[in-house]
């Protein structure tokens, strides 16, 4: 399955199946350790009505619904160096802020 995913996304030159499996196993272990009682929702749709009337919508890669609150895991990837990755990550601040504001509008505890 990992090899098929890598081929479908056309990243065979950059990623080996064993590395994808290692990353997946690591994520699953962390979820089990920290949020064992959480329900997992993949590609969870979200929408936020902003004060100016605009609607921001999208999908959260993985939403964990635990008794203590929501945990959002949203993967970002792009080619480049670690320095470039740090700069690129900052461009997602608006998206993360919208998700956080939307979460505050729910009746769940923020983590």
Produce a short descriptive summary.
The protein is 41% helix and 25% strand.
Q: Can you tell me about this structure?
A:
The chain has helices spanning 2-8, 17-34, 82-90, 93-104; strands at residues 39-49, 55-66, 69-73. By secondary structure, the chain is α+β, with helices and mostly antiparallel strands. The protein has a three-stranded antiparallel sheet with strand order 1-2-3. A hairpin with a 2-residue loop joins strand 2 (55-66) and strand 3. The longest helix has 18 residues, at 17-34.
Total domain modules:
2
Q: Let me know the largest β-sheet.
A: 3 strands, antiparallel
Strand order of the largest sheet: 1-2-3
Basic shape: globular
Structural class: alpha+beta
In the predicted model, the low-confidence regions spanning at least 5 consecutive residues are none
Please name the defining characteristics of this protein.
2 domains; three-stranded antiparallel β-sheet; single chain; 4 helices; 111 residues; 41% helix; alpha+beta
Write the SSE topology.
Blueprint: H1 2-8, H2 17-34, E1 39-49, E2 55-66, E3 69-73, H3 82-90, H4 93-104
Antiparallel strand pairs: 1-2, 2-3
């Amino acid at each position: 399955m990992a090899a098929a995913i890598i081929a479908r996304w056309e990243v065979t030159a950059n990623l080996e199946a064993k590395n994808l499996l290692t990353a997946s196993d690591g994520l699953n272990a962390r979820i089990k350790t920290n949020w064992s009682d959480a329900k997992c929702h993949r590609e969870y749709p979200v929408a936020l009505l902003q004060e100016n009337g605009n609607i921001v919508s999208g999908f959260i890669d993985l939403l964990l619904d635990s008794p203590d609150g929501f945990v959002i895991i949203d993967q970002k990837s792009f080619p480049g160096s670690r320095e470039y990755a740090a700069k690129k990550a900052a461009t997602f601040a608006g998206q993360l802020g919208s998700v956080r504001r939307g979460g505050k509008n729910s009746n769940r505890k923020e983590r």
